[in-house]
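assembly run, all chains below
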Amino acid sequence: MVKKEFFPGIKKIRFEGPKSKNPLAFKWYNPKEEVAGKSMREHLRFSIAYWHTMKGSGADPFGAPTWMRPWNKSNNPLRIAEDTMLAAFEFFTKLGVDYYCFHDRDICPEGETLIETNKRLDKIISLAKKLQKDTGVKLLWNTSNMFSNPRFAHGAATNPDAHVFAYAGAQVKKMLEAGLELGAENYVFWGGREGYETLLNTDMKRELDHLAMFLRMAVDYAREIKFKGQFLIEPKPKEPTKHQYDFDSATVISFLRKYGLEKYFKLNIEANHATLAGHTFEHDLAVASINGMLGSVDANRGDLLLGWDTDQFPSDIYQTTMAMYIILGQKGLGTGGLNFDAKLRRGSTDLEDLFIAHIGAMDAFALGLKIANELHKDKVLSDVIKNRYSSYDTGIGAKIEAGMVDLKDLEVFILKNGEPKQVSGKQEMLENIINQYLVG
Amino acid sequence: MVKKEFFPGIKKIRFEGPKSKNPLAFKWYNPKEEVAGKSMREHLRFSIAYWHTMKGSGADPFGAPTWMRPWNKSNNPLRIAEDTMLAAFEFFTKLGVDYYCFHDRDICPEGETLIETNKRLDKIISLAKKLQKDTGVKLLWNTSNMFSNPRFAHGAATNPDAHVFAYAGAQVKKMLEAGLELGAENYVFWGGREGYETLLNTDMKRELDHLAMFLRMAVDYAREIKFKGQFLIEPKPKEPTKHQYDFDSATVISFLRKYGLEKYFKLNIEANHATLAGHTFEHDLAVASINGMLGSVDANRGDLLLGWDTDQFPSDIYQTTMAMYIILGQKGLGTGGLNFDAKLRRGSTDLEDLFIAHIGAMDAFALGLKIANELHKDKVLSDVIKNRYSSYDTGIGAKIEAGMVDLKDLEVFILKNGEPKQVSGKQEMLENIINQYLVG
Amino acid sequence: MVKKEFFPGIKKIRFEGPKSKNPLAFKWYNPKEEVAGKSMREHLRFSIAYWHTMKGSGADPFGAPTWMRPWNKSNNPLRIAEDTMLAAFEFFTKLGVDYYCFHDRDICPEGETLIETNKRLDKIISLAKKLQKDTGVKLLWNTSNMFSNPRFAHGAATNPDAHVFAYAGAQVKKMLEAGLELGAENYVFWGGREGYETLLNTDMKRELDHLAMFLRMAVDYAREIKFKGQFLIEPKPKEPTKHQYDFDSATVISFLRKYGLEKYFKLNIEANHATLAGHTFEHDLAVASINGMLGSVDANRGDLLLGWDTDQFPSDIYQTTMAMYIILGQKGLGTGGLNFDAKLRRGSTDLEDLFIAHIGAMDAFALGLKIANELHKDKVLSDVIKNRYSSYDTGIGAKIEAGMVDLKDLEVFILKNGEPKQVSGKQEMLENIINQYLVG
Amino acid sequence: MVKKEFFPGIKKIRFEGPKSKNPLAFKWYNPKEEVAGKSMREHLRFSIAYWHTMKGSGADPFGAPTWMRPWNKSNNPLRIAEDTMLAAFEFFTKLGVDYYCFHDRDICPEGETLIETNKRLDKIISLAKKLQKDTGVKLLWNTSNMFSNPRFAHGAATNPDAHVFAYAGAQVKKMLEAGLELGAENYVFWGGREGYETLLNTDMKRELDHLAMFLRMAVDYAREIKFKGQFLIEPKPKEPTKHQYDFDSATVISFLRKYGLEKYFKLNIEANHATLAGHTFEHDLAVASINGMLGSVDANRGDLLLGWDTDQFPSDIYQTTMAMYIILGQKGLGTGGLNFDAKLRRGSTDLEDLFIAHIGAMDAFALGLKIANELHKDKVLSDVIKNRYSSYDTGIGAKIEAGMVDLKDLEVFILKNGEPKQVSGKQEMLENIINQYLVG
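ok done. output:
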């Protein structure tokens, strides 16, 4: 079975440097190249998103699939599932990526009953385990798709029907077991239907209570089966639902704190989800990071002039630089990684486009890593920032930080010292310097 | 002094009913009319925003003032301040509104020094106190403007310079004292410059720590002077700064919880701020309400096709109905009210437009109140919602809510019970019914 | 065959008035009720969108279909096509709607070859013709789907490959013949793929030249076969493509003028497309109308906080009032109508929801018609506007309009007359009056 | 008088190359460096926007000015006007920019009457003329501010009051004379108030007729006085008004064609205005360019997450590259240039920030020019595009372009040739290559 080759014309992708004209070579990603004491590979922990890369078809809400992959040709859905897994590992290894991620329904279609579905899953998980062992590729995270099946039309854990809540619970139970079996380093919750279409028929408080209860059950079961992966929640403000409860980093953190769940979860920040919420990518990364909750990244790119999740491959060096700057700033993502939750444009119909797009994305982050490292090394921003806040290091500022003064003391200070001096924020100067590091 | 009349042609505004052609009469707002056991006046607790209504000039970023008010004609800024206060109370009483709100810099321009500024404030506060007593009009809330003066260009409590932090503290001290003196029922914080322009020069964590410290000092000082008003934070996502820390309800609640401040604050939700954050007005009201933190409302309207705070007078009955539905649902706003943080369009240059706009807004909320009350009385939505979640009232649902089941139990339940049944959310039906209540 | 009943529990929808609690009755739409000299039915010319109403499945980009219609159950695609047509006419007549609209691929799936496809079409067109005759229901417009099939991934008339252009031409030829056969009163072009994903690979000028050539061929062929229907272009700014050439009314009119096609086309304005372009619905209606090009309307509603085409059923009375105000202002839509290009929410899974949603939409436009008629009758807005521009009816204004003055004359006028007087725009007053007409 | 120095610490800005750490030096802009047969200086034709650079104060809608320039300190407004002009030319020459742009009200405040205003203007124009001669700096374009004065609250040429129309005409007459006197190479119209706030009080058709009449008068007067500058219209969709008639390139072109004015006008495209209209900068440049109407550029940058005109200095190399790619593609801007319609951030309060920001912007465009030239030279995109459309160069495609085929021919072609072949659009590959040119 493993003799099949799904990408016969394509060899292992090599680093050829910035001048290479070969679209199937890396220009900046050189896995073993050392940056700040670690290899690029260790820093970047790239991961492939099974749903887009292996299961994507080019379809969109206005159009049918534009490509048919060679692993998708059987009449037998289980054979397709196996072929897809084989193709996936061929892709991972040819591309040279160490991690992948999946939903339950990506790797295996549902059967008539939960029992049947889980049997199918067992078979395909066993194949994945073998392939992981053969190749060294690891599972960054897995998750359960609780949004595609019509049973989840009104939500999963937040469904008004407890029966659906139960179904979702059974699915997550199985996926936690799968994560354990495959050594997943994380487990992700993205609540695509955990939200509402209209407040006219919604009890928001009760739905949120249920969501918290659901997450707690997952935490408990993980502990019970000794699954050690990091739990992650992936914020998204809307789409498919009108409003999703996990709107953005701040909202998720608020929710977790309310229900006392904050120590069990970190966040999986997606660039395109941040921008749909009205934030820059780096904003939501920073919010997660300063709360000690930046766990992993869905590395893609949106189009700020389009109001939906375009899931484009990351290619903007400004963005990859800022992302890596924050990640380096917190000493890496721990068990997390950079997962390419990105899909080919509908018109990119060549099989090789799958490689080309990932290569570009990996190069963009490799570049971002190198530039961000230079910025850190040269203390370009950190010196400016340190100096800018230095009034809090001594005098009245230090007392403020120490909680040693009250409003009366502040009034006395002003009566004595009068107006503060004006200080420029030097934004334009810093933007100019960024361009020097980017292109220089 | 009190003999001056600033609106000589306008008499006390009366209720004339929906068929009236008099633009200077109420069509639906009938202050004494009883709705659900209380008068409209008690329900709605309307308030005038001093900054827009008394200080607005029709200016915008591309144009100079388009009107000159009769209370604004002296060469002496303190005389202007007094005349404005007199005109304000004439306006409040002619319109028949019980509350008003102000910033320190609305009622009195700054002097050369803080001492001078505070002396000026004392004088004008004393006038306000007298006028309150004379008329029975009360202060819904006051606040300090910590965004207009150039000293706050980089923030107030979140300024990188501790000297500015101190200045802001001194201002808030004075305004808490003013609130005490004038019997303010609330005190509001809107952090128009508490945010950042670029992450390149910003230490977000340190700024947020400072903001929390600042709020704590305010809480402590209020306790010290025995100011009993409710503290409120007003979320806004952006404008004037690129990103503001009090982005929306969820973000503010998250922040308050992080720093243990949640029991001292409620929220002042503004319609236009909610929509700038990507939410409906009712969404942000609902989020605040289910967290027990809906304290007051800035009643205006934005334009969803424009990306800035247009602060239009509320006139959309759908929105006022949903707002009043949520407010009735939590048994009113307590010490809060409906403050018209709204301004005339630049081209509405007649003095009477000021009355006409407020009349329309008050009518829109009176209508919203009446419709919302009918919806509550007839249990139009609550019956649908109660029934929709009834699976959690018994059986597996009740056990889920009680925390009595785990993922294994849920799996067992599904293995036994199979697929859930499909249930329609009936959104279109509910939308049709709303139209019947609105127009019917 | 015609004995099948697809909506067995539902009888012909009746008018029961605003107090009716029957979700399956009209509250305001009373077909024979006269408004301004014509029946509501004649004014409103409601039409059903075959693609959403008959072919919709509840699927969205993140989820599988949530309902299976009784006309969709055969294994034979042609049987499904026939059953769907039968069900459609049952729906039209039970609902009491006089028109419908379709794409070629809605009424009949493609065959292996164009010949086979067209044979299939002939069969189903013949059934439609019989049903039209039996019921009196007419075809408002038809069109060709040139966006779903993967061959159109890079456009139809604007495809870089002339072969695809030719395919599109063959499709349109067939649909013009179908329009002729079925007596279509209009023919619509919506260019869902006529645009670009990236300028990096696009020759915009050449694509637009091709589009113009394509439209000219359609005009010529219509003349040749004596098809008399009005040609309509439906603007949409984006989705599915990054940028669509028919961005909005102004853009389409510009394009038509450039290529000398303006006399052959009018516009089909969709509410949700207007708002995606950053305009209000009434703005794009008005732009089309003042250019004499408002031909028909796709009556739906978007969600201004969501960035995609939500295609909700119209229910906002403010919007339906303004739309009908503009339509009445130009004495109706001629051969056009109000086509409900709207779909049920994914969670509205009851078959009766299809009726309920259309009933609400028809009621919303019936109400809009009645209110708009009152506004016209009472000259509420027209008198204000007439008066506001009256300075152009005499004196310098009349000379300006007549082209009788130049800049020198204007300078002389100002030197003599000085500053203009300030005049209020009375926006808030007008908004208040609209509420009186809406609810009063 | 000319002995004053307003930027005493700053010397002429020099090119020091990409490694320079001097914030007051160019890193990429080397005026004499040759690119594609012309010097950078000749290509880029940089211009300073008098209103932002000289008159900007750091004020925003929520805050007072944050800086006081040394040329702004007199109590005499005319002395300020003179000092500002002197400072401006010192700035132009120290920065090394060849052009500037102004509004009438930037260079001189209005007097009590038009006569007085025009006298003031004459004096300051005469100073400008002398300084132009002394320095060689030229006037790229001038324009009239018809939006700030309250008389324009409801529009200038589109004002409902003919008196205001006349005032606007008198202003433009004077500015055309000023343009003639100063050798302006262009004259710009930006209609900041030419639009509407609400359709409830607006006769859109009549307003547009008036606007066309106004522009025609300007054209006629320019011919009469032999002013040879190119007329330009600057599109903007909104802000300050709800809707502006010159929404975007396509809308303006449509308007000009309708009124037969297209041969007298070109477009001045501003980056931030394009994005407010929902387009990329390059989109609106391309639309203007393929219609032969790209005349000049307002070179700035918006923030796509903010809904207002942020007018930031351009610094994104992706954008400057695409802009220069289009400009090189049409062989330059003719009499147009790159005008920095950009303002310092409110917090950039150092006088030197004015230099730093412009230096960064000039460097960003110099880089964009160099990269765009490489792309053209290597035919990176043009070869892809040429090949992509090559099916129109022969066979059926050539016949289509020649207008030699009709729909019947296309059907015959498809019946014979069947389905087209699938071709990838290679978007990701092209994006990867752009990164290589950018950073490589």
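The longest strand of chain D covers residues 138-143.

Chain D touches chain B at residues 58, 60-67, 147-150, 152-154, 192-193, 197, 238-240, 242, 276, 303, 305-308, 345-347, 349 (CB under 8 Å).

not gonna interpret more than that til we talk
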